[in-house]
Design a protein that fits this description.
Elements (H helix, E strand, L loop, with lengths): L3 H10 L2 H32 L9 E7 L7 H13 L4 E6 L10 E6 L8 E7 L4 H5 L3 E4 L8 E3 L9 E5 H7 L11 E4 L2 E9 L15 E4 L1 E3 L3 E8 L4 H12 L7 E6 H8 L1 H35 L1 H9 L4 H38 L6 H27 L3 H5 L3
Parallel strand pairs: 4-10, 6-11, 7-9
Antiparallel strand pairs: 1-12, 1-13, 2-12, 3-4, 3-8, 5-9, 7-10, 8-9
Helix pairs in contact: 1-10, 2-8, 2-10, 2-11, 8-11, 10-11
Length: 401
Amino acid sequence: MRDLKPILKTIKVRLMGPALLALQIAVTFTILVNAFFMIEQKEAMISKPSGVDEANIFRVLSNQPFPKEEYEARLDETIEAIRSIPGVQAVSMLNTLPLAGFGTYDELTRTPEGRRETWTATFMGSTDAYQTLGLELVAGQGFTKQDEITVAFEAQSHPSDVLVTRALAEKLYPDNWEEALGKTIYLTMIPHQIKGILAEMNGPWGTWFAAKISVLKPVRDANEVLPLAVRAEPGEIDVVMERVKEYLLKTPRRQITYLDKFVDIKAKNYQRESAALNTLWIVLLGLTFVTALGIFGQSRFAIMKRRKQIGVRRALGASQWHVLRYFLTENAIVTSIGILFGCVFAIVLNQYTVSHFEFNLIPAGYFVFGAAFCLVLGQVGVLVPALQASRLSPAIATRTV
């Protein structure tokens, strides 16, 4: 290209301005690529499936204001009464819900005193709890009523069979996760046999490193606390929640600690991630605006200093398009240099976050996107000053000192 040699000569002579612009582009590219990758990761975390029928599930946590010896009978009575409420599709006792923010976890080993394979979130509930939540059984069998254990007040007992998530099965048997069926695992040194495998069941903590590794036990706690998971008919969740509340409060001294939809529970669990996501978007928008403004100001200043040069070129026959092309090309070259340095900075920053914060490596596609974005941003930023320069009259420009 004819303009390339004079552009490189101009950059060499006026090095400070292009160098500052290239540095700004490099910093913008570095932040842009890493921030967009973090945004994608957080959006994937927030939107990932929990495994449950999210739109129709709600939880209710209340007390049992009865003598201890009546807990089990009253538990069955309450569940049957709620099941008969119009609009209730299913109800089960369950110690906590996925993404609820609280629950229990166990150390998982293959032998009583073996090496820890992983940590697992542990759910305990009625035998039909996985069906109430709408979980998908992808291998093996579900629980039967004979599998269920009801634990009396302050007593301890452990079932023999459990359901596990596919993520846990893949952790134990990465080559063929279905091999986990029938195998014995030890949860805090207590043996359990894997009876079935669930497609998904998020743990109580969304950002936990083992968020997808869960175990469901057929255990009901007959005590003063009554945690229930209820599944409403589609579109009737608000009405059903009110009906369940009315029924429970008919019992004297009954108190309701929680009564909330799963969608609200999930939103609360990811509240920090949502706030961080919004902050990242604000930073990106602000950075884009500041960079575009910087390119505009830098380009306008450089063009104003070269009015006489522009006028000479116009007098020698350069068209408006030639002048416009010159400054657009100059900006593209400086921006490309900034992008090259930005790639190096972005890789170094990503390697640091991978080694210190367990982030993932940024795919190459993000670098391509970042480069295209910065090139377009540079062209947009220089366009107005370049258009103004191309419209300079040769006579006016040559009289400008």
